[in-house]
Amino acid sequence: GENVEQHPSTLSVQEGDSAVIKCTYSDSASNYFPWYKQELGKGPQLIIDIRSNVGEKKDQRIAVTLNKTAKHFSLHITETQPEDSAVYFCAASMVNFGNEKLTFGTGTRLTIIP
Amino acid sequence: EAQVTQNPRYLITVTGKKLTVTCSQNMNHEYMSWYRQDPGLGLRQIYYSMNVEVTDKGDVPEGYKVSRKEKRNFPLILESPSPNQTSLYFCASKSGDLYEQYFGPGTRLTVT
């Protein structure tokens, strides 16, 4: 089955700097890669996603890149703000409109230092 | 407001006492799923349902049951809870023809 590894497990950056979180996946059949943000006491919230036919996607300060050959994808947050502090999870899925199980990484706790 | 709701949000119970965690979505989604979240392990799928009366096991189904009698509801049943089922549980749903999955707020279960 799919295995997703995520690094680093914790990350502290100065407010205004950029943060990068990296994930690798094992199953070349995976074709959908979402990123979730989880704040304390809340459920995971989808913040950005990318499909396997795209190499990069950007939404304001957040971007995701995908390298299918190397089987890795990354989340980039620019101009970080205190409200970006949270736990971030990457995930991989093979969307075939059957069981679209998300296989999650183990999470990155991001702390923005004011 | 489009959302996935779970009840209860917090539950402390004793070993062997049957319990049900409810999940409901108001988005008319076909696909629903349960995950558990444990420190250092991320989220792991317990059961999923592709539509009414269609359910199947995920990666960690032991000790759990589910049912899908209505499209909007997908309860998680623990017939005889044990301490190793102490965890944070999330329900998720998605439309059958879209990619995005949406998660509920979570249920923190403690079994003593």
Detailed description of the structure:
The complex is a heterodimer of chains A (114) and B (112). The relative contact order of chain A is 0.34. The model of chain A has no long low-confidence stretch (mean pLDDT 94). Chain A is built from no helices and eleven strands. Chain A is mainly β and 114 residues long. In chain A, strands 2, 4, 5, 9, 10 and 11 form a six-stranded mixed sheet that branches. Chain A has a five-stranded antiparallel sheet with strand order 1-3-8-7-6, with no helix packed on it. Chain B is mostly beta strands. In chain B, 0% of the residues lie in helices and 51% in strands. In chain B, strands 2, 4, 5, 6, 9, 10 and 11 form a seven-stranded mixed sheet that branches. In chain B, strands 1-3-8-7 form a four-stranded antiparallel sheet, with no helix packed on it. Chains A and B meet through β4 and β5 of A and β4, β5, β9 and β10 of B.
As an assembly, this protein is heterodimer
Average of pLDDT of chain A: 94
- How large is the radius of gyration of chain B? 13 Å
Radius of gyration of chain A: 14 Å
Question: How helical, in percent, are the residues of chain A?
Answer: under 10%
Unreliable runs of chain B: none
- Number of helical runs of chain A? 0
Structural class of chain A: mainly beta
Shape of chain A: globular
Low-confidence stretches of chain A: none
- SSE pattern of chain B: EEEEEEEEEEE
Distance from first to last alpha carbon of chain B: 36 Å
Secondary-structure-derived class of chain B: mainly beta
Order of helices and strands of chain A: EEEEEEEEEEE
What's the total count of β strands of chain B? Answer: 11
Sum up the structure in keywords:
heterodimer, A: 114 residues, mainly beta, 6-stranded mixed sheet, 5-stranded antiparallel sheet, globular, B: 112 residues, 7-stranded mixed sheet, 4-stranded antiparallel sheet
